[in-house]
Amino acid sequence: MMMASGKEEEEEVVSIISNKQVVLRDHHVTGYLKESDMCISISTITLKVPDNSKGVLVKNLYLSCDPYIRGHTKSIQGGYADEYFKTDSPIIGYGVAKVLDSGHPNFKKDDLVWGLTGWEEYTLITETESLFKIHHTDAPLSYYTGFLSMPGMTAFTGFYEICSPEKGEYVFVSSAFGAVGQIVGQLAKLLGCYVVGSAGSKEKVDLLKTKFGFDEAFNYKEEKDYDACLKRYFPEGIDIYFDNVGGKMLDVALLNMRLHGRIAACGMISQYEFDKPEGVHNLFNIITKRVRIQGFMVLDYYHLYSNFLGIMIPYIKAGKIVYEEDITEGLESLPAALVRLFSGKNAGKAVAVIAHE
């Protein structure tokens, strides 16, 4: 049997390193998500793309923490948990990364990219359809976990493509301080709409009005009667409801829609922790008020990404849109950051710094 030379042994040792990951303890999580439902695991990874593979090997720099991940961790009829999560595998989410090796012609070593990756230090990305090269590095790289990536695209396509807004319309945004909501509200204001947002604390409500330019905002936790609340802020009704929460707020918004109103069903964060989601009872208003309600997935609109950048990059440079981030350090911070999203304790787009270039 031939023995490997010392040089070959050294190269093999160097190419395989430890890889810290955040994994779920169980495939499906019932009840309220807890930090203890996740744990840190140590695996190994070869720092080279396998021969004949079009995969891309990356070092993760920033990882995004988003509410939709909760939907991946539980068994929901019509959901997609099994598509993303496998036992003993890292949680899947969006991130910013640096390419270490590539078998794909569109990506090369040292490229900066954003897209779906693992909650781990290094990831071999084999499905590259949702991987984008970062060309505009004058914006903070962390923005490519939010403002300039999936959440920003969600806000952009949901507002313009789904809601078909017009100047002067009345717009309501729930979870308005979140990664998507804060962008939707600012886009609506730039168009000349009247905008009201809901958030979960006095501090967030104040920032929505003073930093993000919302006309009004309210703390949903302090409102005992959502119907009276919406009638107070929208005495003439709502033209556009950008729904990030579902549940009771969606039910009451249906009562307050104007004729030919539009609802973009973007998220259901109020329902993700329930094993049996709350029902919606005011659906007859969809008929009588000719309301159009449409769910959407941002994945269907990534072909518009260059158009999105062409509009949003100038907005950043001109200071017309601002963005709030809640940045933590290290993989170890991600379980707590994910849990915080569902108590409203996050202070903007949740993102973890995994490594500095």
Largest sheet: 7 strands, mixed
Shape: globular
Strand content: 25-35%
Rounded to an integer in angstroms, the radius of gyration calculated over CA atoms is: 22 Å
Counting DSSP E segments of at least 2 residues, the number of strands comes to 15
Average pLDDT rating:
88
Helix content: 25-40%
Q: Which secondary-structure class do the elements indicate?
A: alpha/beta
Number of H- or I-type helical stretches? 11
| Low-pLDDT stretches | 1-5, 7-14
Order of helices and strands: HEEEHHEEEEHEHEHEHEHEHEHEHE
> What is the straight-line distance between the termini?
42 Å
How do the helices and strands line up, and which of them pair or pack?
Blueprint: H1 6-15, E1 16-24, E2 38-46, E3 56-64, H2 68-72, H3 81-84, E4 92-102, E5 112-118, E6 122-125, E7 131-133, H4 150-162, E8 170-173, H5 181-191, E9 194-199, H6 202-210, E10 216-219, H7 226-233, E11 238-243, H8 247-255, E12 257-265, H9 284-288, E13 292-295, H10 305-318, E14 325-329, H11 334-341, E15 349-353
Parallel strand pairs: 8-9, 8-11, 9-10, 11-12, 12-13, 14-15
Antiparallel strand pairs: 1-2, 3-4, 3-6, 3-15, 4-5, 5-7
Helix pairs in contact: 4-5
